[in-house]
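User: Quick sanity check before I run a bigger batch. Here is a single chain. Can you write out its predicted 3D structure?
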Amino acid sequence: MKDEHTISQAAARHVRMSPRKGRLVADLIRDRTVGEALTILRFAEKKKLSGIIEKVLRSAIANAQQKVSNIDVDNLFISKITIDGGPMMKRIRPAPMGRAYRVLKRTSHVRIFLEEKKGR
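Assistant: Done. Predicted structure follows.
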C-alpha cells in the first residue's frame, strides 16, 4: 500500500488499547496538520490512548525528517490514520454456579501516514 504522495509513515503493533476507543481519538486528528494534531493529543480526554497515538505520530515526523532532510514539518499533515484490531488475549472471569465467563483483552495496530501540503 505505497502511495506516491505519502512522505512517511509509522506504525505501532499489538498496542494494549481497544480499537473502538482508539478510533475516537484518531477521529479528532484525522486530516489535521502535525502541530495541530500534537496539541489536540496533548489535551485530549483519553490520556493513555492519546499518549500512544502521539508517540506514533512523533515517530512518523522523525521518519519524514530522516527521509527528506530539508522538509518543513509545519507543512506536514495526517493524510491517513488507521486503527485496526490486533490479536485478543483471552482471560477467564469466574461466574456464578461454577461457570466461567470469557474476557477479551483487545489489542490494536496503529498506522499513521503523513503527506506534505502543497501551497499554503
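Strands lie at 6-15, 76-85, 89-94, 100-105, 108-116.

User: Great, the batch can go ahead then.
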